[in-house]
Amino acid sequence: MQAVITAVGPDHRGLADPIVHSVTELGANIAEIQMYDRDDAHVFSMMTRIELEPARYADLRDAMVDVSKETGLSIRTWSPDLPKLENRKPRLAICVTYRPETPLAVLRAIRDGRIRGEATVVLSNRRKLQGVAEQFGVPFRLIGDDAGEPNDDAMIDICDELSIDYVVLARYMRVLPAASCWKYAGGRIINLHHGLLPSFPGMRPYHEAYASRMLAYGATCHFIVPELDAGNQIINQSTYSVLPGTSLDEVVRRGQEDNEPDCLVEGVRRVVDNEVRLHFNRVVAAHSVG
Amino acid sequence: MQAVITAVGPDHRGLADPIVHSVTELGANIAEIQMYDRDDAHVFSMMTRIELEPARYADLRDAMVDVSKETGLSIRTWSPDLPKLENRKPRLAICVTYRPETPLAVLRAIRDGRIRGEATVVLSNRRKLQGVAEQFGVPFRLIGDDAGEPNDDAMIDICDELSIDYVVLARYMRVLPAASCWKYAGGRIINLHHGLLPSFPGMRPYHEAYASRMLAYGATCHFIVPELDAGNQIINQSTYSVLPGTSLDEVVRRGQEDNEPDCLVEGVRRVVDNEVRLHFNRVVAAHSVG
Amino acid sequence: MQAVITAVGPDHRGLADPIVHSVTELGANIAEIQMYDRDDAHVFSMMTRIELEPARYADLRDAMVDVSKETGLSIRTWSPDLPKLENRKPRLAICVTYRPETPLAVLRAIRDGRIRGEATVVLSNRRKLQGVAEQFGVPFRLIGDDAGEPNDDAMIDICDELSIDYVVLARYMRVLPAASCWKYAGGRIINLHHGLLPSFPGMRPYHEAYASRMLAYGATCHFIVPELDAGNQIINQSTYSVLPGTSLDEVVRRGQEDNEPDCLVEGVRRVVDNEVRLHFNRVVAAHSVG
Amino acid sequence: MQAVITAVGPDHRGLADPIVHSVTELGANIAEIQMYDRDDAHVFSMMTRIELEPARYADLRDAMVDVSKETGLSIRTWSPDLPKLENRKPRLAICVTYRPETPLAVLRAIRDGRIRGEATVVLSNRRKLQGVAEQFGVPFRLIGDDAGEPNDDAMIDICDELSIDYVVLARYMRVLPAASCWKYAGGRIINLHHGLLPSFPGMRPYHEAYASRMLAYGATCHFIVPELDAGNQIINQSTYSVLPGTSLDEVVRRGQEDNEPDCLVEGVRRVVDNEVRLHFNRVVAAHSVG
């Protein structure tokens, strides 16, 4: 089976060695290592993807707990095959802020079985969409203060506590810090961007495309990969065309109400159904990986 | 009615004055003037859009012939309202090179009445698609030499001789020189670009989008506007999405066989049906122009 | 001599004709016309560059005053040859906000005769640099409210009232509205951008170049041209290189204290000395224009 | 001391484990691992940077030879500290094609002691600059066929055979394949690009900047890093400014004859003098690395 180990620490000394030792002692093969020294932020990070016998997964997890205790590193072990092994649905944390369309679409798709996952929690930096979570009987957890500033550590703590498999950013309006991205690296954070990547990466992609007088618009569902601009991690892209003379309001309305929800639901489905995987920072069709 | 006058000459002296004089003497109002001094190519150009009484259109044309004779400038007079006034369909010159899909789609749409125009001529710098023209009974005119180098002046001469209203570039593989663009300026040259503008303007837009691992592709039908990158002159954009793992060949096949033809046919229809106009280098819905 | 006429009005009807009539009646030749319909802002604009006998310049100015009265259009007449004809130095309005380095450099260069112009007024949306103006005995005019919001019409009124030839934006931190750009179109508004154009057009060019780990930085002095991104209107560019490991603070310090002032002073000098002109939206060496 | 191990193989199985085992058995600490699966080219690659006792370097080299024999992987061991340890100058391979200015400048700087390295060999895919090598008494090796197509494996074989420390691409006109870049990864391949990166990455940076009517030009000396566009690996950038109206020929002449040679010589000097290092794909000042 495939397993993913992430480690985050304050410097780049002594990070790789204990993890690499443990992994090889368990007879696992290293398939991929990504390391990064974000020295300006004092975040040193590593993501290791390995192949090991399913019977050794528990040992791996225990070993990593030990390494974490000994070194003080923040370490996580996970596998995309866990839900199947544990005979359960993948657990999703749905992160939201103001716009209700995409979280509603994901919650409905889960309820109707189109996304074969569990809506374990709705996280938000604002109270606005608490009612949406309650409507579907999903616990709501506020991670923002009165000004909407999120407690990024609280987000990770909640996901850890609830054994979340995938974090879904459904028009969540804050940027995850690099440390959070690394902690859930390896294809576990799914974002919905309301423009076509890589052409329109900004905060206002509808406005930018409209300013270019484009007649085609789109949304992009992609994995968040730390330290990289999202160019190669696209899971799904949905598009629509409008007539000349269409107002920006109408463009945005069609995008937010129809296109974005469809884009995110299909993207989450592909991930939850294990149709796609992250492989050296690129999305690949799962069946194509050796 | 609206009329468009284009003038091209070897320098910028004495170009504007005689045209402006004639226009104002006829009681017309100047709605738009675009001038450009492409000094490195010794091409000086002007496009004038005016409003005048339909009864004076013939006088305008005669006056411009006189100005042309006196000054040696290359001058053309035209109106998008001409076909209606002359109780005829708009005349189209379809320019092609190798790919048959988009010209075939336009010829079929004309035959079936979906594009209410006349396929007056098929122009090409290569003989390859001569059979496509013959299949629809449309005259074929070769404007290229043995190496496929086009005679750009011959293209314009043929369009002049046949009183062409619109030049349709259906995957025509050569760049029109600035002088040709100016001679048929004012919204008369329609191009099909096989990528989404303005994001993918290059010669190989499928390859470039694929290299970015995009999952959405598109085509753009736009007016050619001299001296400007095509950013604001979009008439129609069509898109399609593919699954992760789709091969480039399959992406290109779907684009060339399905998406590009649909994009161009709808774009030409919008122009021929006077649904869109070029207004200060931007496409506007015709009903929105005062 | 060359003269420039600018006209701004609320719609595109009836703008061009009266100006064109007057110009041709005076025996002038039209060298360039730029028109633009910024319909979304209800600003219709025209810039006309003409050649006429110096003896007729006063008549032209009077005629334009008449047209303005009759039509309600906002019309201005100007010539880069005026200071010479009137045996005076070009009058400069120096627009500033917070940073003192570039205005100080321009004021010193004027005092020392390196820029052969007159510092007629210092305009600002903030009071901060009032002392700089006073230090050089130049009148200071505040055009901002308590929040620093500028009164754009007041800026133009002051420039009109003082017969300003050139408006110098010396790290003036507000964007001029399109109407102001048109009113002083034709190569009269000189801006200092603190990054290399066209590569770094944003608000924080030092930060953006630094984020790319560049080791070369620069500033750009350019004419402001309405409706166009500043790509072709570069008057002067100055650059400097730094060693690997140089801090952003040090990069910015060298740029602001040394490079930007040098760049702007030389740029203003080239304009004031008539070494460069704006010709069809591009800067050309003055001697190269026919 | 710091050591760099690179490994290239045909797939991603079994690549990392034997190297990681050997390294940790030698008591070395892993400082950085970069892995990449260029699956479309069947090139799997790894670069490992480690810290180990200088006394163990010979053991490391032997161990890697053994791993290479057992696994069939192409493995190289190197250290930027080797020349000092072996009491010799760094050995440079200077790769050239047509333009003589930059190789001449490097050869002169080596002769004059400004670059404290040894010009071990001049490599070229063309014979044109053979005389330049001979003039400085440096062996010349042709790696191109009659059409100038380079034998990329021959280039690597020669560098291996001559124990080259640094490969200097002095306007070498061919793109190194990914496998070559990986084999000499870790800050050993120095390129001179004749434009400012990242703004002008193309084949004709002078022409592109000139088409934007820029008045500042530059060159960039940078490490080649496989799989990444060169954005963060800049070692040196040199710039110059020109007056409006300067011809493209003059711009290119000043760049090729003065600016590019200065840029490359100073860049090579910084590397050879160990002033800069590559650290997680970014250039850092050597003293700043912990």
TrEMBL record, chains A, B, C, D:
EC number(s) recorded for this UniProt protein: 3.5.1.10
Gene3D superfamilies tied to this protein: 3.30.70.260, Formyl transferase, N-terminal domain (3.40.50.170)
Formyl transferase N-terminal domain span: 92-265
Record GO terms (molecular function): formyltetrahydrofolate deformylase activity
Protein name, as recorded: Formyltetrahydrofolate deformylase
Class of the enzyme per the UniProt entry, highest EC level: hydrolase
InterPro entries reported for this sequence: ACT-like_dom_sf, Formyl_transf_N, Formyl_transf_N_sf, PurU
Pfam families: ACT_6 (PF13740), Formyl_trans_N (PF00551)
Gene that specifies this protein: purU
Organism name: Botrimarina mediterranea
Keywords per UniProt: Hydrolase, One-carbon metabolism
Swiss-Prot/TrEMBL GO biological process terms: 'de novo' IMP biosynthetic process; one-carbon metabolic process
